[in-house]
Amino acid sequence: MQAAGPGPAATPAGLFVRRRTLECRPRRMLEAMKVWLAISIALAMGCAPANSEPCATSSGCRDELLLRTGGRISYFRTVPLARNPTVRRAVIVVHGNGRDADRYYDRLVAAAKAESRLHDAALLAPHFRTEEDGPSPHEHYWSSQGWKIGNKSRDAGRVSSFAVMDELLARICSNTRKIFPALQAVVIVGHSAGGQFVNRYAAGGQDCPDPAVEVRYVVMNPSSYLYVDARRESALGGGFAVPAPDCEDYDEYKYGLADLNAYMKRVGPERIRKNLFEREIYYLAGSEDVKPGKSLDTSCPAGLQGPDRVARHASYRRYRELFDDWTGSVFATIPGVGHSGGEMLMSDTARRVTFR
Questions:
Q1: Tens of pLDDT along 200-209?
Q2: pLDDT of 216 over the 70 cut
Q3: Residues 290-309, mean pLDDT to the nearest whole number
Q4: Position 53 in a domain
Q5: Tens of pLDDT along 257-279?
Q6: What's the confidence (pLDDT) of residue 201?
Q7: Range of the domain at 29
Q8: What is the total count of domains within the chain?
């Protein structure tokens, strides 16, 4: 008669279960350590776990972008610029004359919530500081007018505000898709002074490096627009023509293409026209934005574009019709809204072109 072997059949059931438990425990501990290590590395690199909640209030969402110059700019963001496969749309909002990037960020978050897009959209708000804003020693800063039109910063780094946007886009939608692999669209939106920025950047900026990503520009209630030739609309309703020489500088940049700054000069008038005519640009105006206000440009060159923001929007729309190849732009008026960035961003029209 052969003795029973030492296999499981000859082992008490309780001892067999205990032996399996002891054998599995090291593997479980190893797996747990791997997960903990992965999360630690992600947090150290500025990556949030895929299921983390987006940062939805400006008070806790400030970050810094390191540029090729070695300098930095501040910005607000819902998610870090680290690999995130859930992001399908990126929206960049440019602040107004008050350089209140935090307020514009909060307004953009509110609009995204209204569209239920907070969890699949990366929202960003760069802060273009001036010297009076008290920038830190490593931050770039601009003149109060220069940041709006792509001028170089006033610090030693001497970087164009448009070059900053170029770098931001290069991170978000590079051809390698390292950060947002599922990205489908990028929207750059600005109100008032931010609208001036977006209008000029749409004409001269490098755009998204990945041609598969749709890029939209949304220009809301700017004080002035970029014209591509010397004609302006007559206040007397006589159509467009070269005006009398009352404003010698009316066609200089930022109003026209004469005497371009360094960034726009490298792009050149021909490419500027092509970009402005072909890119997907939405020009939105609040129907009640007719009051002068302290932020309205009342200079002679701006006055040739119309007496107020609504009139300037309408004149620019008619100006577009002078060019058969100006096909990429859409003009719309938001009923009942004045010069309010919050109301413009929350309007159905703005939310539609920004998030849908």
A1: 999 999 999 9
A2: yes
A3: 94
A4: no
A5: 999 999 999 999 999 999 999 99
A6: 98
A7: 14-44
A8: 2
1, part of any domain: no
Clarify whether residues 81 and 119 are in a common domain: yes
Question: Does 78 share its domain with 21?
Answer: no
| 16-47 confidence digits (pLDDT tens) | 333 333 344 444 444 544 434 443 434 334 44
Q: What is this structure's pTM?
A: 0.86
Q: Are 29 and 177 contained in the same domain?
A: no
Domain CATH number, residue 243: 3.40.50.1820
Residue 297 CB-half CA count within 13 A: 25
| Shared domain check, 112 and 18 | no
